Amino acid sequence: MLDFSWLVADAFWTMGRGAATTLILIIVVTACGTVLSVVGAAVRRGRNKLLRQAIGGYVELIRNTPFLVQLFFIFFGLPSLGIRLSNLAAAALAMTLNMAAYGVEIMRAGLDAVPRGQWEAADSLGLTRYRVFVAVILPQALRVIFPALSGQIVITMLESAVVSQIAVRDLTYEGDILQARTFRPFETYLIVTGIYFLLATMMQRALHAGAVRWLFGGRR
Amino acid sequence: MDDFSSGQILVNLLLAARWTVGLTLVAFVGGGVVGMAILIARIDHRSWLRRSATSYIGLFQRTPLLMQLFLVFFGLPLVGIRIEPWLAAGLGLTFYAGAYLAEIWRGGVEALPRGQWEAAAALELSAAARLGLVILPQALRMTLPPAVGFLVQLVKATAVTSIIGFSELMKTANAINNATFEPFTVYGMVAIIYFALCFPLTTYARRLEAAPSR
Fold it and tell me: How far, in whole angstroms, is CA B6 from its chain's centroid?
């Protein structure tokens, strides 16, 4: 029968610490990944053909290989090129590169959704190309793609469970340690899964509230 | 210690990739069956069935695949089934695929005009015939591009089963890496093999999407 007698304050503390690591990781990755996505999408629609193709190739490469392979390649493979990263840095880098690839495609769709007239109108006001992009086009694009982007952020958080495999002390890693001590793996992972579910739900709510506040000016 | 040449590494990885393909197919077919059941529950007139199906989909979409696999792996012994990595991998990915396919197909069913239901009812078709002969053929065809897109996601998802010990491509790569200490070559080749499996499917899905739906 199921046995939850191991679920005492100490276990909660351990899992809470792991959840905090998972959360901090996804916040950092979201910030870096979103910026990279915007830059990537801008370059992808830019004038330099070589850069356009490079970004396109990068996006295809990431989207058609498993995250676990990307993580292991960065953590175990890159040191042979002389690039040695700590496990936490490797995890953050792999997650960021992964999110950026999906983000570029999402952002691109958003930029395509902004009517051409918006560029022309802003242009006729004498704004520089950079100002047009940041002040006029980007906010409109973000509103369109917000649901897809926040979905991708949650997916990245859930996929981050495998960074436990390179000994990043995230929620899954703490669960591994805990179940080795309690000998109740099913019960332990059941609780850990529940925490992931709560994290995903909370993140979705927070992202939605943030969007209403910052992207839609409190309306909607 | 085994001495592997790059050619031998590649051959061993390609042999292991058969298990990746096999697991993907099993999970896609099994997930299709589970997904169809969930879909039918999801559009049933009984609200408790609809709610259960929605919860099922939500649970799988809001928890890590790795946790789903762990729960199957460690849960099977609790119901008296001996742990086998292949069984846990197959079952886990089947349940996972079922949730995503049900959600994809639901989108197709809901996109159909109400008139299709009404016309089928006007023809005095039974509930099963309405769904099986009128609604599903249209909904499945309409959602072919996202279903193929999900197949790509499923190929990538199989890599996670290496963690519960199923000897597919990724697990084999880890073993070879431990023997050769050539992670750059090994994981580079693994990435290329996954890419070779996924990219044609991605391209196919994109072409389906671009083609005018009939």
Answer: 31
